[in-house]
């Protein structure tokens, strides 16, 4: 058992943490499986978006504490370098990802949710840093993603004081993008993912790469914009968009250059 299930629904690949007896806490093996499924989806032209979710009504409780037993400095560094591949794939990879959060998104589980482009949180969900309880700082990119979403003040409250955020509040403060009734996060996430899958793939990928680079000075962003936008003007998606606009119909994007 890898602890990660993969299922395709049209152009959307659903990736599910599936260790319900551990509240979907992940192991190194299950994270390697998640990375493999992401890479397979990226290589598959029929997959245009991902949904990341958890089984049995909870998202992910972070790393399985058993992984931390006997941890060494060198071993932890090596493990984090390996896990960072998945953070980069979600945040900066060419295909968009939506997190569907029910139950708990705790510790590194919260990190993985926020590595996704968009987050749907059920009203009764709990999103929490939890790292201070183990004498640790946040990892898997949470120090990068959380302040961008909620600002430095709220990020400090969550990172330093371990203040939890309920799903009812998450969308209001920017921690989540959409709110759902309990049990309906996956349904809403699928709707969002289908909409993402209908967008021009190359433009989505370029946009994700710029956003993942984080705050930069204006000139750097403008240089990137000039390069990427010029390339997009040479793609079939651009010409399809123009034709659809003039013909007053919805465009059908393929991702071909």
TrEMBL record:
GO MF annotation list: catalytic activity
Taxonomy, superkingdom: Bacteria
SUPFAM superfamilies in the cross-refs: ClpP/crotonase
Pfam families: ECH_1 (PF00378)
Family: Belongs to the enoyl-CoA hydratase/isomerase family.
Name assigned to this protein: Enoyl-CoA hydratase
Organism annotation: Actinomadura chibensis
């Amino acid at each position: 058992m890898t602890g990660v299930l993969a299922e395709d629904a049209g152009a959307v690949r659903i990736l599910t943490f599936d260790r319900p007896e551990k509240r979907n806490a992940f192991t190194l093996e299950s994270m390697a499986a998640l990375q493999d499924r992401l890479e397979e989806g990226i290589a598959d032209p029929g997959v245009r978006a991902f949904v990341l979710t958890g089984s049995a009504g909870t998202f992910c409780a972070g790393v399985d504490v058993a992984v931390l037993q006997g941890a060494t400095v060198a071993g932890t560094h090596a493990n984090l370098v390996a896990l960072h591949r998945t953070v980069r794939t979600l945040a900066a990879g060419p295909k968009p990802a939506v997190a569907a959060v029910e139950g708990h998104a705790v510790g590194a589980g919260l990190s993985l949710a926020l590595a996704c482009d968009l987050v749907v949180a059920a009203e009764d969900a709990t999103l929490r840093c939890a790292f201070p309880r183990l004498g640790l700082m946040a990892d898997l990119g949470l120090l990068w993603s959380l302040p961008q979403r909620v600002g430095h003040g709220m990020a400090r409250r969550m990172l330093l004081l371990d203040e939890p955020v309920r799903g009812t509040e998450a969308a209001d403060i920017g921690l989540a993008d959409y709110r759902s009734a309990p049990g309906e996060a996956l349904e809403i996430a699928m709707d969002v993912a289908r909409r993402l899958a209908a967008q021009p793939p190359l433009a989505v990928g370029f946009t994700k790469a710029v956003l993942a680079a984080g705050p930069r000075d204006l000139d750097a962003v403008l240089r990137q914009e000039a390069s990427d936008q010029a390339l997009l003007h040479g793609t079939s998606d651009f010409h399809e968009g123009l034709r659809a606009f003039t013909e007053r119909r919805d465009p059908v994007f393929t991702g071909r250059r």
